[in-house]
Design goal:
Length: 471
């Protein structure tokens, strides 16, 4: 939520210094005007005391409203989610078939009202306080003019100067108050940016080690447990596991067992809550995450649809070779996406995505093949991860792709490459050197296919159930 607010207010970051300069200018004009009034009578200088509540309330008003926005952020985020559901094509078919449009619209309205009511209530309170302070200043200004006009032997010039300077004081005070409030908004946005930078620094400050060029022994999980940030649910618990160098490892288990979480830890998207992951004895948490990820390859089930040229959408898998068409073509062939590219009017030079002029939209399965091809871009990654990227494809196609990854890994055994295959289809991973079975956030079985079948435990049971379904 804090990141979303920072995103929404990011435009303010460009106005910090201009706003500061304008604030200084307004304050200087205000001081000069007060000086003119004091030259008529020192008593008129007391007007500045009645301006203090106005400035104080306006300064605090911005901070109070920003904190209220943070408190209301979950409801606002929910309202934004319902809005996107109801206004983007992705959910259109299901919403119409289920006749849920009105329900989504009503829930969006309810969520918006929950968040906006809290913000509006606070804005009304601060607005009334602001109005009260301005009324106080206005009354003091009227009293000042009356005082000058009713002094013994009043000077018409003094009265006129008081009226003019008092009007200018009101105008400059309004400008100063407005600039104060805007500057406070800018400072709040800058503070959120500093919070983000400090958070990033705290996560990367100790990661100074280089990534290994090869893996000699393997990757070891030592008593690894993990909970996602801001949650209490243990997703992985007491995982002890060895992934031998040069091996093809399959991760299987029912939904929610922790398969994808394990791959995220290996990719350094998160660090373990407890325990350690070591690469040839070196703690993965001490390796620079950017350098480590440069040694990774693969594709994920929750892939993203990059609406670039088809060549760039694939080439993004190895950024230094983004524009190398031969490398992209090889990746397309490896990833089984040749049929997708061949059907495009301009081949690799075709713009993907309906958001762009002449952009070509793809089916879900075609987008998935492009994502898999992207995962084949790096020639010699140390760790290849296939986290169910072919769930929308048939079992035969998935097995073919997995076998390609396995062959590629075994051909590069000299650098110790480890290939990790995650699938809910047991038949497609039986060729793996090692199969890891997860159940209830724990590793319950480890071995090759024949060994696990001979155990006649969970793996054998689940394999038999799936095999019966294909008969």
């Amino acid at each position: 939520d804090r990141l979303q607010i920072l995103h929404d207010h990011s435009f303010l970051l460009n106005h910090v210094y201009p706003s500061l300069m304008q604030y200084i200018g307004s304050a200087a004009r205000l001081v000069i005007t007060v000086g003119l009034l004091a030259s008529i009578s020192p008593v008129l200088g007391l007007l500045v005391l009645f301006a203090i509540p106005t400035v104080t309330v306006s300064t605090r008003r911005a901070g109070i409203e920003r904190r209220t926005e943070e408190q209301a952020a979950p409801s606002v985020r929910l309202a934004r989610h319902f809005f996107e559901l109801g206004t983007t094509p992705a959910a259109a078919k299901e919403l119409r078939v289920s006749s849920a449009e009105a329900t989504i619209a009503a829930r969006r309205r309810d969520a918006f009202l929950v968040g906006y009511t809290r913000i509006a209530r606070q804005r009304w309170i601060t607005a009334w306080l602001n109005a009260a302070t301005w009324l106080l200043f206005g009354a003091a200004y009227v009293a000042a003019v009356s005082y000058v006009a009713h002094r013994p032997n009043p000077n018409a010039g003094d009265v006129v100067l008081t009226l003019a300077a008092g009007a200018a004081l009101s105008r400059y005070l309004g400008q100063t108050v407005g600039q104060t409030e805007f500057l406070r908004w800018n400072i709040e946005a800058a503070q959120r940016l500093l919070w983000l930078e400090r958070y990033v620094a705290s996560r990367t400050g100790v990661n100074e080690g280089d990534a290994p060029a090869t893996i000699a022994n393997g990757i070891i999980f030592e008593n690894v447990s993990f909970k996602y940030p801001a949650t209490d649910t243990v997703v992985l618990q007491d995982v002890n596991l060895t992934l031998p160098a040069g091996s093809v490892v399959a991760i299987v288990g029912e939904n929610g067992a922790g398969k994808s979480t394990l791959t995220k830890l290996l990719c350094r998207l998160y660090d373990p809550t407890e325990g350690h992951i070591t690469v040839d004895g070196v703690d993965l948490a001490t390796i620079d995450p950017g350098l480590w990820r440069e040694r990774l390859g693969g594709a994920f089930q929750d892939f993203f649809r990059f609406e670039f040229l088809a060549a760039n959408s694939v080439g993004l898998g190895d950024l230094p070779r983004l524009d190398e068409r031969p490398a992209v073509s090889v990746a397309v062939e490896r990833g089984g996406a040749s049929d997708v590219i061949e059907k495009l009017s301009e081949g690799l030079e075709t713009q993907l995505g309906p958001s762009w002029q002449n952009g070509k939209d793809l089916s879900f399965g075609q987008w998935q093949k492009v994502a898999v091809a992207r995962g084949f871009m790096r020639d010699r990654p140390l760790l290849c991860v296939l986290d169910e990227p072919t769930a929308a494809l048939d079992a035969e196609t998935e097995q073919t792709l997995f076998e390609r990854f396995a062959e590629s890994s075994r051909a590069a055994a000299d650098d110790g490459r480890i290939t990790l295959l995650v699938s809910h289809r047991f038949s497609t991973v039986r060729m793996a050197d090692l199969i890891v079975v997860l159940d209830g956030s724990r590793v319950v079985e480890v071995g090759d296919h024949d060994t696990l079948m001979a155990k006649n435990a969970l793996y054998a049971e689940l394999y038999a159930i799936q095999a019966a379904g294909y008969r």
